[in-house]
Structure formats: C-alpha cells, structure tokens
Amino acid sequence: MRLENIVWGARNPHRLGTFWAAALGAEVTTDDGTGLEAHLDLGGGAFLDLCFQPVGEPPSSPPRLHLDLTGGDRQGEVVQRLIGLGARPADIGQGDVPWVVLADPEGNAFCVMEQRSAYVGTGPIAALPLDSADPERDAEFWSAITGWVRADGHAPASLRHPAGVGPLLELCPEPKPKQGKGLIHLDVRPAPGDPDAVSVIRRLGGETIDWPGAEGQPWTVCADPSGNEFCVLAPHGGAAFLPG
Questions:
Q1: Which pLDDT score, from 0 to 100, does residue 26 have?
Q2: Which DSSP letter does residue 85 get?
Q3: Could you give the residue ranges of the DSSP H alpha helices within 46-168?
Q4: Residue 201 — φ and ψ, nearest 5°?
Q5: What is the dihedral of CA 184, 185, 189, 194, to 10 degrees?
Q6: Residues 6 or more apart from 188 whose CB is under 8 A from it?
Q7: What would the pLDDT profile of 53-109 be if each residue is shown by its tens digit?
Q8: 191-211: per-residue pLDDT in tens?
C-alpha cells in the first residue's frame, strides 16, 4: 500500500481546493462542480493527491490531522502570500510560539513553520501531524500500511516516504481521546500483489468502520489503533470521502 491522498470535507470544494492548490503549487486535475482534486508532485517518484469533497454539516469534534507548511527563513513571506490567497491569522491557544497559525477559507487551522533541520527538502508541506494515543505503536501501524520509514523529526515518532522526499507524517501525543469524525483524513491504496489490506489493518490493531452511505463504494473506511479514520482505496479509482 501507499499513502496517496489527503482528503478534506468542504462546504465549497471549489473554493477550498483552489486555495490549497495555489498554496501548495499543486496542479488541479479535476474540478467538476461537485469536487476538486489536485496533484502535488513531491519528486523522486512520490506524490500526494489533494481531494476536496462536499460535506453538509462539518463535524464539531477537534481536528486530529492538520498541515504544517514549510516556512523556514522565508516564513514571513510565505505567511503573507497565504493571506493574499485567502487565509487568515488564527488563535487556537498556541501562545508565544515560533510558528504561525493560520486558517484556510473554511476555518481549518494549519501552521507555517520556522526553520527546522528536519523539514529541509520536504517541499511545500513540512509535516502532517496526526494525534495519537500511542505514537510508537501508531508509527509501526502507519509504516506497515504506507511503506513510509522512520525519520528524524520533532514528534515522538515520525515517518517519511522511503525516497526521502515530501512531508513527515508525525505521530503526536493526543490532547484528548478521539471524539467523532474528522474533517481531514488520509487515503491509502494497495499495490498489485499486496496482501489483503483489511486483514493487515486488523492484524496491526486497526479496524473497519461501517459508515452510513459508504456501502457499495470502491473504498473501505478504516480506523488506526487511535481511532483516526482513513480509507483504503480500490487498486484503481478515485478519492474517498467519509460520508456525513
């Protein structure tokens, strides 16, 4: 399996997707009025697709996955460019920190990071911080289902594409246990010849989830051992959205 998509539920997929495509320098590949997808080339044969799908009422539960963008010695310049694209400063209780917290056009918080050696060469996304009840355990889980490998980072456990490109997946201690469905999640896709994905996920401590409206779709909704939702795509097909 490989980590393929970052998926946002959006009230206005076109507006939100256009913002993130411009913010990250991704190429819009689909914009059909109901959803938007953009392709982010990470180099070294690696990529992430950014998928924006409609959602009715956004969940009220605290987000467990967000994006940390690369700022470095150009942090101020990056922040101003993002504000020009439609982001706004956000206060989520971060206090006096060296990174800058912004919100995208639909209020999803993200960070623009200061200079950190672990983020050199990551591209526009420095990291994908994911809340975890047990970072070491969940790092083993995500490594097994994505093929990403351990990397030096600032979180208790970090993973990165084996080509050494793209963002870090950071397993961060959760401030509180999982509450409700998340608005942003990840998708993985099996490769030909991979063992049965659901069996692997269950063996590693994950589970499948029966979401209303997901029946008959070409993906399986799952959760990692900390309850974070993700989808296993069919070997060929599109992005998955967790129905509301």
A1: 98
A2: H
A3: 75-85, 135-146
A4: -60, -45
A5: 170
A6: 1, 2, 3, 4, 145, 146, 197, 230, 231, 232, 233
A7: 998 777 778 899 999 999 999 999 999 999 999 999 999 999 999 999 999 999 999
A8: 888 888 889 999 999 999 987
- The first and second tokens of residue 81, run together, are 């460019």
Report which DSSP code applies to 212: T
Query: In whole angstroms, what is the distance from residue 144 CA to residue 151 CA?
Result: 14
In the numeric block, which tokens belong to residue 233? 């795509």
CA dist 4 → 40, 44, 144 (Å): 10, 15, 14
Higher-confidence position of 45 and 27: 27
Read off the tokens for 171: 């397993």
Strand-strand pairing, 157-160 and 207-208: unpaired
Q: Which of 12-26, 135-149, 201-215 has the lowest mean pLDDT?
A: 201-215
